[in-house]
Amino acid sequence: MKNKKAVEGFEVEEPAAIYGEKRGAKAREAREAMDAGETVECIRAGLPMVEFEALQDLLGLGAEELAGHLAISRSTLIRRRKSRRLDAQESDRLLRYARLYARAEAVLGEAGAARNWLKQPARALGYVPPLEFAETEAGAREVENLLGRIEHGVFS
Fold this sequence. Notes:
Layout (H helix, E strand, L loop, with lengths): L3 E4 L2 E4 L11 H9 L2 H10 L3 H11 L3 H7 L4 H10 L4 H21 L2 H9 L10 H4 L3 H15 L5
Antiparallel strand pairs: 1-2
Helix pairs in contact: 2-6, 3-6, 6-7, 6-9
């Protein structure tokens, strides 16, 4: 199911790379224009594999490494590549990581810094890399809290 919407002169297809992807400001503008209902609808329909591939590029991870963070087995990843669509749970987890990447980039100021920070062990997270810590929603919230502390200059 393709979900097209005109957003400030841009035609956007689901989910318009809900995170701040390298393809530029158009995706960010589209993301900001999407409401929660549209996001939930895209998740329920399952995100296209192109979103997986885009996040893989942004994070600088191999497909199997990102799949591991998303709790997608190798055999399931092969099936998803054939069907070209993630299921709802996988889509939800993908958006969790996309949200964290976008937040890290906003706080740290550049893509490379965000990518590196997400992969390095963080003292405030018990020396676990944020990408690994965020494998649960509770862990992702803690990573977001840590980014908030960094943004406001609170020693963590």
